[in-house]
Design goal:
mainly beta, Aminopeptidase, 4 domains, 9-stranded mixed beta sheet, 6-stranded mixed beta sheet
């Protein structure tokens, strides 16, 4: 290495600590159309780490085919190593909620010119057409009746049945747009053979179903109005319908076979997943947030009863379940099929049914109290909505004194701005440095006198009364180690008590923040991944971009990047260093709340033969 005595060494480091928008990294973008309507449309665009082709997947274009939309839903959360996905899990959410094939029109027959956009189906179709224009391949997921066979074998097994088939509009199609032949039949047969090798029951094997849609004597002329026909004929992209059989009653088996076909298509199109997953847990409601008269926000779980006055205005603004998508609420006798975020004046007792797609996952009873007990005779002064928990007896017809101690139901907390609901003896997982706030405690009756105490934290230092609700707790700085279990700082306790009697407790499990890796793009040497303690070797003219930092912290909340002691605070921030500062051996340092969670050293020198970009020390 040559001695650099009088020459200033310049190193430019560009900070791109923006995971969702960084080119070259797996990311997911969500687009929402017609928000807060019963036909709300959610579109997920998944971009892979490496460039590649784009596959569009549609599910639920007909609402009585759960095998299609449940399968599509699994791909909205997929991470990709190569290529891209456009996923529309529930193209026709309204028909899914109602579990009907169609509401006004069969949406899969509306891919034709229409004079107006009066119906919601046509509005959605226009969006789907635009998404097709951004795609290289197209899959439409369905459930079909019976089992497709090339020749007649019986009522449920014949050429007019669709189940267990891969449908295309032609065997061979010449695309004027692409100027090439598309061998749809060859692709479909290849996929079917690959998938069938892993399906034990030969009755469930997939077959290529050629609809011959472009031919005059086709028995499937109506398919000329379908999404796959439009994608193929208008944009010249390979388009297929995947049909599992409605006669297969095991929904999980159908979804698994559907995903086998999708995965095989992805492999054929060189779209490589990072971590595909299948999760088919039964839908389960955690809670809903209900506002009463626009100000009183209360939380209710499955089978809870909310007692209100006649004419009170109810709005359910949030649903928390074990699924994020496909959730709706129907207040019986009010509104439409989806009443989420809609306010109604309630004049008679009713129920709020919560659904995941068309599957019921919980209900809340809304009871209108008589004027005698609702305080109408006093103008309603001081009235509060009453929640009667599941399994408890309804409120008595005559007022009775409440028992001395309420029964603790759950604690509402906020971690880095996200709410969680915890029951007695549940464990809350925390990464050291998370910001925690204890919001409220829910009991089966009056909560006056209840206290929530985080053992190891003092909110009011002037008067430690054991009440810690409302304080923002910095879990890296505000906790006393000696109050943790065995003094190790790994487990703390939140106590819920009433007049010094403990009613419940929540355990807080603490984990140290840690760096998994840093991704750095070299201006002269490509993109590299560095683990904690690695050394990045560069030349004086090299340019670095910190394009990703992977930690065990959800969303990297509070994670900071420092280069030679300088915190990077904005996108594309350029920092130069002279020879003296470049001697700082720390290089890139990743911290959270003052805690160093990882480092990567930077060595500056002359280029040498071979790979000089990664040096382990």
């Amino acid at each position: 290495m040559k001695k650099q005595s009088c020459i200033c060494i310049i190193l430019s480091i560009v900070f791109l600590f923006t995971f969702a928008s960084t080119k070259g990294f797996c990311k997911t973008e969500q687009e929402v159309y017609f928000k807060n309507t019963e036909y709300e449309l959610n579109v997920y665009k998944v971009y892979g780490t490496e460039k590649g082709k784009t596959l569009m997947i549609i599910g639920g274009i007909q609402g009585d085919e759960p095998g299609g939309y449940l399968s599509a839903d699994l791909y909205a959360d997929m991470a990709l190593r190569k290529g891209n996905l456009i996923v529309v899990p529930r193209a026709n959410f309204f028909s899914i909620i109602e579990h009907k094939r169609a509401i006004n029109w069969d949406m899969n027959r509306r891919f034709i010119p229409v004079k107006s956009k009066e119906y919601y189906e046509d509005k959605i179709v226009e969006i789907l057409k635009g998404l097709m224009a951004q795609s290289d391949f197209f899959l439409n997921l369905h459930e079909g009746s019976g089992f497709f066979r090339e020749s007649y074998e019986g009522d449920l097994k014949n050429p007019m049945r669709f189940g267990q088939s891969i449908i295309a509009d032609a065997d061979l199609y010449h695309s004027n747009q692409k100027g090439a032949d598309i061998h749809l039949g060859d692709i479909a047969r290849k996929i079917a053979n690959h998938v069938n090798a892993n399906i034990a029951n030969p009755q469930y094997h997939f077959r290529f179903n050629n609809h011959r849609t472009f031919e005059e004597n086709t028995p499937h002329a109506e398919q000329r109005k379908s999404a796959s026909f439009y994608a193929l004929s208008s944009y010249g992209i390979p388009a297929f319908g995947i049909e599992t059989s409605k006669e297969i009653k095991n929904i999980e088996a159908k979804v698994r076979m559907q995903t086998m076909v999708i995965n095989s298509f992805m492999d054929e199109f060189d779209i490589i997943p990072e971590n595909p997953k299948v999760a088919l847990d039964p839908p389960r409601l955690k809670y809903v947030i209900v506002s009463v008269n626009g100000s009183q926000n209360i939380m209710a779980r499955d089978s809870d009863e909310i007692k209100i006055r006649k004419g009170d205005k109810i709005k359910i603004s949030q649903i928390e379940a074990n699924y994020e998508r496909g959730l709706s609420v129907d207040i019986l006798g009010m509104g439409t099929a989806n009443d989420l975020n809609k306010e109604f004046a309630i004049t008679a007792s009713t129920k709020a049914l919560v659904r995941k797609d068309s599957f019921s996952c919980g209900e809340i009873v809304i009871s209108v109290m008589s004027s005698e007990f609702a305080g109408e005779g006093l103008g309603g002064t001081g009235f509060q909505p009453v929640i009667v928990g599941a399994g408890l007896k309804p409120a008595p017809t005559e007022p009775v004194p409440p028992p001395k101690s309420p029964n603790f139901k759950y604690l509402i907390v906020e971690v880095n701005g996200l709410r969680q609901v915890l029951s007695h003896n549940e464990h809350l997982k925390i990464i050291k440095g998370d910001r925690l706030k204890l919001l409220d405690v829910i009991a089966d009756r009056n909560t006056d006198g209840l206290k929530v105490n985080f053992l190891g934290f003092v909110g009011n230092k002037a008067n430690n009364d054991g009440e810690d609700r409302g304080y923002l707790i910095n879990t890296a700085k505000d906790l006393w180690l000696k109050y943790s279990k065995n003094g190790k700082g790994l487990e703390y306790n939140i106590a819920i008590s009433y007049k010094d009697k403990r009613l419940g407790q929540i355990f807080v499990d603490m984990e140290e923040p840690k760096l998994n890796y840093i991704v750095v793009k070299h201006g002269q040497g490509g993109q590299r991944w560095y683990a904690d303690g690695d050394t990045i070797a560069v030349t004086a003219k090299d340019t670095l971009e910190v394009v990703d930092v992977k930690t065990n912290v959800n969303g990297n909340v509070g994670v900071k990047v420092n280069v030679f002691g300088n915190e990077l605070k904005s996108e594309k921030q350029k920092i130069t260093f002279d020879k003296q500062s470049a001697k700082n051996r720390d290089g890139i340092v990743i911290t959270r709340e003052g805690i160093v969670i990882g480092k990567a050293k930077i060595r500056i020198g002359e280029p040498v033969a071979g790979n000089n970009l990664l040096i382990k020390e």
